[in-house]
Amino acid sequence: MRCGGFRTTYVADDQIFETVYPKIGIAVLGLALAVLPGLLTSYWLDVVNRIGIAIVGAVGLNILTGFAGQISIGHAAFLAVGGYATANLAGREGWPFWLVLPVAGLVTALVGMVFGVPSLRLKGLYLAMATLAAHFIVEFTVQHWDGLTGGVAGMSVPPPRLGALSLDTDARLFYVIFAVVVGGVAFATNLFRTRVGRAFVAIRDRDVSAEVLGVNIFRHKLLAFGVSSFYAGLAGGLLAYQAKIITPENFPIGVAIDYLAMIIIGGLGSVLGSVFGAVFMTLLPEVLRLGFTALSGLSPKLIGAFASIREGVFGLLIILFLIFEPDGLAARWRTVKDYFRVWPFAY
Amino acid sequence: MQRVLARSLVVVAVLGLSAVSAAAQIKIGGLFDLTGVTSEVGKAFAQAVIDHVGLLNEQGGINGQRIELSAVDYGYKIPQAVATYKKFKDDDKVILINGWGTGDTEALKEFVSKDQIPYISASYSGHLTDPTKTPYNFFVGASYSDQIRIFLQYAKESWKDASRKPRVAFIYSDNPYGKAPIGAGRQYVKELGLELVDEEVVPPSFQDSTSQLLNLQKANPDFAYVNTTTSWVALILRDAQKLGLKTKFGINPYGCGELLPKVAKEAAEGTLCMMPNVAYGENVPGMKAILDLHKAKAPQVNTDNLYVRGWVYVTVWSEAVKRAGGELTGPGVKKALESLRNFDTGGLTPPISYTAEDHRPTTRCAIYEVKAGKMARVGEYEVPRKKEWLGL
Questions:
Q1: Residue B70's beta-bridge partner residues?
Q2: A175: distance to nearest CA of chain B, Å?
Q3: B132-143: buried (b, 16+ CB within 10 Å) or exposed (e) per residue?
Q4: A51 lies in which domain range?
Q5: Which chain B residues touch A250 with a CB distance below 8 Å?
Q6: Which tens digit of pLDDT belongs to each residue from A67-82?
Q7: Structure pTM?
Q8: Is there a domain that residue A339 lies in?
Q9: Does residue B383 share a domain with residue B267?
Q10: Bridge partners of B368?
Q11: How many CB pairs under 8 A join A and B?
Q12: Per residue in B265-307, pLDDT tens?
């Protein structure tokens, strides 16, 4: 009788999903996502697309901060680089989207590696300051290099084309975004089963020991920044296609903080955590807005300064969440799964 | 707190109302800033639009049909504005949008042209005046560019020293709203033969402008035009007073009003304000409805020219919707707007005219001066309606 971690072949050892049930679950999820655009209104499709973009960005940041341990507040800057690279390549040069997105990702990866150089000397909060500098440098460049970025007026991005079909509605763009999401999540999950991924984790846990064991810190830290920025570039490019107009105001420092919040709430060092965190942080303002609009009909006196209270509740929920579930949503998900797996026993 | 509660009560009540009302045929979208960096001027404007729509509905609506206003707070964030626009277009199917900020209006201008939804923005950006580029954009008042020209003209005319040219400077915020009139301003300075000695850029929100004003002090301008909103203008004036600057400041319509002397106190004395609409309580026929409403629904929380501005916006677009008659579509309302010729808003603004070739409603703007904490009308000035200035 099988019990615990019982495997008989190396192939079985390498499986991500040990039983068939998660695979069925993923197939059902895939089917549900495929029919989703037909069921949602335009506003909620916009929200779902933004969730998809957030997932890609959050997975990227989790690779850098959660797995490789390099704190980065520069994520908004890398999104901006990806977005403007896409706007230039798709808008000005007219390249097709399946070429633009990877190239934008590569451009952002290079920029990310340049700004990742301080990580070779700095750790923790000091590195955070260096990446904050990256944010301000990119923000300033975007606002003032009018020739490349259109300055504060921004740039418009034409919709992606698939042959004769123009993917200009949110419903059609949904499939592109979720194709990238699926690819990105699969790649990240597999990354941490390879030597490179394990090297990242070793650097996070104790980089001196990692160096002693033969992990090239220099190469792997830069690679972490590169891979993370590639994801950010993809997310920025998808954002450019989805928003159709990008301006410097799309990438304030608040976006970088939002992404950090996503991975902390979702769970550092977990790809599934990034997904949960992205969904939570994107849906929370929408749910709050709906809730307050509905409540306003019942007891207006209670709501008072309607819009300001909503902002306050948002912050409060994040704080409460971190107090009661500091390891993130991924940990809570694992706990719940384990509970049902061994039910009715306690362990 | 009571005022905030009462004010928000109306906002919230109407938001709830708009979600519940049935059989309303005139759907209007309202994009407002209640929590963002321009919210100190956005709240009064939003309240006025909501109040005036409420009043019109009480009086039977337009041509017997109720107006359904979808009021949304987008916090001056462009991505929120774009998402809300999609909601207005696809879910609410609005025939007109009462917009707000320059950044998002300019970001949406291609969308509204393609989707054919008239967009009346609180932003007076000169880039929205050329129908060949932005056929569906309108606003009610002289453009920011014309306002800066009027200020420069006033500066030249009030300059008494014949020995030298007057020195002017521009202070503006680092966003599309701040930068909108500066190009036109630079060009007109050359045309009038004035001397542009300095341009200072401030962030959209800040705590201290001393470094920019120290630079200004070195250049020592006689006149300075400030293009940012009231809270930030108050900080600039306070810092200018601290440094003892002798510059005469001219402020754009979203940086000045009854709110400015309240915030900046003595630092605001002698400041000139560009006012496309009259101050609150001015003795004009159109003010009666506003004063009556405030008397009936106390407390009087929004006694501000921004309230008058929001009010007159509804005056103009409701007239257009009335003229559109049965053709309640985006293009129908656009045509109706373009049929307005010297439309009298009850004296709240100069007469408004739009044509299919020119979306500048007027090239006249009043200048007020802050005297003893109150707005005192200096006069109404005009610049010529030059064809080459269209779209600038």
A1: B29
A2: 19
A3: eebbbbbbbbbb
A4: 18-252
A5: 78-79
A6: 999 999 999 999 999 9
A7: 0.81
A8: no
A9: yes
A10: B273, B377
A11: 83
A12: 888 899 999 999 999 888 999 999 888 888 887 656 678 889 9
